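Mods, move this if it's the wrong board.
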Amino acid sequence: MNPANKTYTILGMRKLLSIFFIATLVVYFITSPGKTPYDYFTRLADSFLQGKYYLEDSQPWLSELVPTQNGKFYVIQPPMPALLFIPFRFIFKELFQQQHLAHLLGAGLVVLTMAISYKIKKDIKFSIFSGILIGFSSIVWYLAATGSVWYLSQISSAFFMSAAVYESLNKRRTLLVGLFLGSMFLSRLHTVLAFPFFLYLFYDKKYWFRNYFQIALGALPFLLFNFYYNFVRFNTIFDKGYFLVPGIYSEPWFSKGMLNIAYIPEHLKILFLKLPNFYSYPPYIQPSWYGLAIWITTPVFIFSLFAPIKENLTKLTWLSILFIFILLALRGGTGWTQFGYRYAVDFYPLLTLLTIKGISTTGLKKYHWVLLFVGVIVNLWGVLWINKFGWVGW
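Not the wrong board. Structure tokens:
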């Protein structure tokens, strides 16, 4: 490609990404249910702005707080989304709510996925396909439009994981990759299990130590912040907030403790077998708060199985997905209330990468587009039924 054509293509791609970002942002805003009551992160960001690491009040519906004897309440979710909120809350105050950050990060996730797709296969149509896949043919749409505390954590983690993937495939600036991985970790701690994937990408017989050192240097501030944040709250560097929520072990879904191998079958059931609720009266079919099988919400993911299995990158990607899923599946509770199996979003960037690689081996076919738009219809149905009509049940 001559320089003039290359420059034109780059400018065209940037314009396309900008259009997709704005369009996705608008769709998420329109399909949002509005201000989420589970706004732990906006409350925590406001506390950070006041020089506090705790909340001074609670509400009955904010059940995942750790109370202390001196009237403080600790938020148990990792604090990265709250840190991202700080400049927005400082400038816009109450005008910027928790779901707005979810919209922004969700739209950013779409753009990053398109950029990753274009890096793998220089095809604008394929890039558009990939953007629609993650933004509207997956449960990212519901999570990013709704923006409650759990959903925002996952959108934040997926955004930074995708940013790390893109940088690893593009300019490969190891310090920046470390910053993205640190932000990912501080959004959802267990996503640290994706690190082997990135270490493989930067393994080099000659420069491996330099690469790993710079990645570690970029991630270190987030790790140290998490240690300090836990220490001032719990007198330990380890995150044990979930274990301190009052009455947590009296919940039936933790009957065998917080983590147990006996919980895995239930997670597999939701991930692969869960169907919507069917009724003999309108609206006849409803989403279930328990979840929905991944092949229903995103049928295009089936093509992840076509990624070249002989490639080490494919093997490491599947291994990272497996590590993350097993840890999630050991936990009591399968992620409800939810649309789809939301825990899978923790490895969606890796699964999407495999899907892109799987489809790129044959090129886009009509059946790819058909399954893509089936997913769009399913996710539109879920978002409208839950966020706009309240047609959802157990």
